[in-house]
Amino acid sequence: MATNMQTNTALNPAAGAAPQPTSLLADPNWKLHAGWGIGTLGASFLLNSFAALQAAYLTTVLGVAAATAAGLLFVAKLWDIFSNPLMGWLSDRTHTRWGRRRPYLLLGGVVSGVAMATFFTSALTPVSQSQVLIVLSLALVGTGYTIFNVPYMAMPSEMVDDYHERTRMMSWRVGFIGIGTLIGASAQKVAELLGEGALGYARMGVLYGLLIFTFMAVTFFGTAKAPMRARDAKRVSFSEQLNTAIANKPFMALLAVKFVQLFGLFTSTAMSFFLVKFVLGKDKPGDWMVLFLVVSTIAQVLTIPFWRQLSQKIEKQKTFSLAVVMFSLSSLTWLVASPAETMWFFCLRAALKGFAAAGLILMAQSMLPDVIEYDYRKTGMRREGVFSGWYSFVEKVASAFAPSLLLLGYAWFGFQSKAPVQTQEAIDGIRYCAAFLPCLYFGLSLVPLAFYRLTARDLQAMPKAA
């Protein structure tokens, strides 16, 4: 049973509910929200450093051909088809004195930290060219992230009952995502500072591995007083739970939106090294990558209150759609990128992307607990892990396949691994992929987003499960 669980039924301020806190610190539960949200730093370090550098590391350091690297990333992620839903089911069935989810936060931290160090030190080993070991190290990264993130993302539905409080809670996570993205995607610059070539990457991998473990472990202690729910006494098969989850229409619409959009987000992250080095012509791409991240992160963190308040006025689905359009339009500005691009225009693009990303991430993260609550009120069953498992699954698939498709696009335009200078055709290909691929992915996401109908009023009208 839940302990110290709030039962705030103020799902819709417009319907005469109690006023919402004007700031995150005014929320009486802010310490718990922050204690949970800080775990995002570890997850963001892992996910964003890999999204930014896995393609660049495989091609420019290990010397793997672009098309081959795309295939290796694809094979490594096949394991996630099974591991993510399985992890969700397992965390739903777990029973310990620390709750169903929290023990996996520590275990995931250990595996993720080791995996990070293992992958980026591989170039210094005698077996660095082994494609089998490359695939295994990539799979280990995915496994560590799964162990941590699936239970982690299932926790908000247990911790918070209120529709708008979930958005406030996720505001902490979005803020930490901004910081984690900045540090995680700055891995290229960190590697440059720590040494030349493979040695710099190895040192960066060990350092980031320690940071990943630290922040994933911190959230274990930060959620010590979080409300916990016991596992359901009713035994339901894994396949039956999945079938019922698929029958949750708001969840399936949100999952489709998230899946397609993540391709756009991870494409944008993976292309950053290639854009700065080859399109903008910068010898040390780390400096400009960090500049872009700093500006976009500041914009992302500062605009979270705007998106949160807008969602309370026009609902989450419309807010989400607006953020999609803004991000797509900002991606088209890469068409005019060149070595002559001024720094102020570069920073303006970064600020626009950060502004739009704040809305994208906040809405996607706050809507997941809503659809889980919808399922609970409809079925009376607690299976947060199943839903978060699928959510994490599409995140992991996109984090691998988006760079894979990007690398195939680069190969089509004639990109040459380890070549210090690329042909004009290859450079144009990098520019076109940066401009059009995110627009394609985000444009497609508007279709399933149009079918997402769940609102605060809908949840309020549903009876609470006994």
Beta strand count: 0
Q: In which range does the helix fraction lie? A: over 70%
- CATH fold call: Growth Hormone, Chain: A
Backbone shape: globular
Q: pLDDT below 50 for ≥5 consecutive residues: which ranges? A: 1-19
Rounded mean pLDDT is 82
The CATH architecture is: Up-down Bundle
Helix-strand category = mainly alpha
Radius of gyration: 21 Å
What does the main sheet amount to?
none
DSSP helical segment count: 19
Quickly name the level 1 CATH class: Mainly Alpha
Question: What is the helix/strand order?
Answer: HHHHHHHHHHHHHHHHHHH
Number of domains: 1
**Portion in strands:** under 5%
Based on the structure, what is the oligomeric state of the protein chains? single chain
Give the name of the CATH superfamily: MFS general substrate transporter like domains
- Give the N-to-C terminal Cα separation: 12 Å
Please describe what this structure looks like.
The protein is an all-alpha fold. It has one domain (30-223, 238-461): MFS general substrate transporter like domains (Growth Hormone, Chain: A, Up-down Bundle), CATH 1.20.1250. It is built from 19 helices and no strands. It has helices spanning 30-37, 39-61, 66-76, 80-93, 102-120, 131-159, 163-184, 187-194, 197-222, 238-246, 249-270, 272-279, 285-302, 304-314, 316-331, 343-379, 384-412, 424-449, 456-461. Helix 2 packs antiparallel against helix 6 (131-159) and helix 2 packs parallel to helix 7. The protein is globular.
